[in-house]
Design goal:
Blueprint lengths: L3 E10 L6 H9 L4 E5 L4 E8 L5 E10 L6 H8 L4 E7 L3 H5 L1 H11 L7 E6 L11 H15 L7 E4 L8 H17 L2
Parallel strand pairs: 1-4, 1-5, 5-6, 6-7
Antiparallel strand pairs: 2-3, 3-4
Bound molecules: guanosine-3'-monophosphate-5'-diphosphate (G3D) and magnesium ion.
Organism: Candidatus Heimdallarchaeum endolithica
Keywords: Nucleotide-binding
InterPro entries: P-loop_NTPase, Small_GTP-bd, Small_GTPase
């Protein structure tokens, strides 16, 4: 039985210090393979996963290194992205407020418009300092889904912690499934 290969290009986006690189590193575990593309101002890793029998999923994960980048560089970072992990920090409401800005940038530059995202309410281990309720996040995603369903796109949200590892595997699995289901519709 031959394995079916899926290659997913995904981007990790969100404000600085919300935990994007930590999430990528946590997902990579040990056998990781990373290269630093300094000229692009982005880090890139690939990881192979076997989540569904007879399927091999190859994730190409792009993670913005710097905050201030020229638009042309950002455009190259996003180009071809089939989905995104849209990350904010539950202790920093401004990082939640900025999600629509990141989403617009993704849609604008990836080359195919509306693509699936999983919103990650990260640093969920910092319960005492929590200031964005998960209910607000669910509301945001429900409203987003009303706008994206006509494109066959369903978005999700999860509470994560790059520190404890909570829901990190799940985040990638859900995004992979969304991209896979979207491409199967064509
Ligand atoms: P970024 O890539 O989005 O800029 P980083 O964010 O992954 O560099 O993380 C920024 C800081 O937040 C780091 O702390 C990192 O350890 C911390 N962090 C990331 N994810 C979590 C999390 O889930 N829980 C907690 N408690 N901290 C997290 P430092 O102190 O190194 O700047
Ligand atoms: Mg980073």
């Amino acid at each position: 039985m031959t394995e079916k290969l899926f290659i997913f290009k995904i981007v990790l986006i969100g404000d600085g210090a919300v935990g994007k690189t930590s999430i990528r590193m946590q997902y990579m575990g040990y056998g990781f393979n990373t290269s630093h593309l300094m000229t692009l101002g982005a880090d890139f890793s690939t990881i192979d996963k076997e989540i569904i029998p007879n399927e091999k999923w190859k994730f190409q994960i792009w993670d913005l290194a710097g905050q201030q980048m020229f638009e042309q560089v950002r455009a190259r970072f996003y180009k071809g992205a089939q989905g995104a992990l849209l990350v904010f920090d539950i202790t920093r409401p401004s990082s939640f407020q900025n999600l629509p800005m990141w989403l617009n940038e993704l849609y604008k530059f990836n080359g195919s418009g509306v693509v699936p995202v999983v919103v990650l309410a990260n640093k969920s281990d910092l319960r005492d300092r929590k200031s964005v309720k998960f209910k607000q996040v669910q509301k945001y995603v429900t409203e987003l889904n009303l706008r994206t369903q006509r494109y066959g796109v369903i978005n999700y949200c999860l509470e994560t912690s790059a520190k404890t590892g909570l829901n990190i595997d799940r985040a990638f699995e859900i995004l992979g499934r969304s991209i896979r289901d979207k491409s199967n519709q064509k």
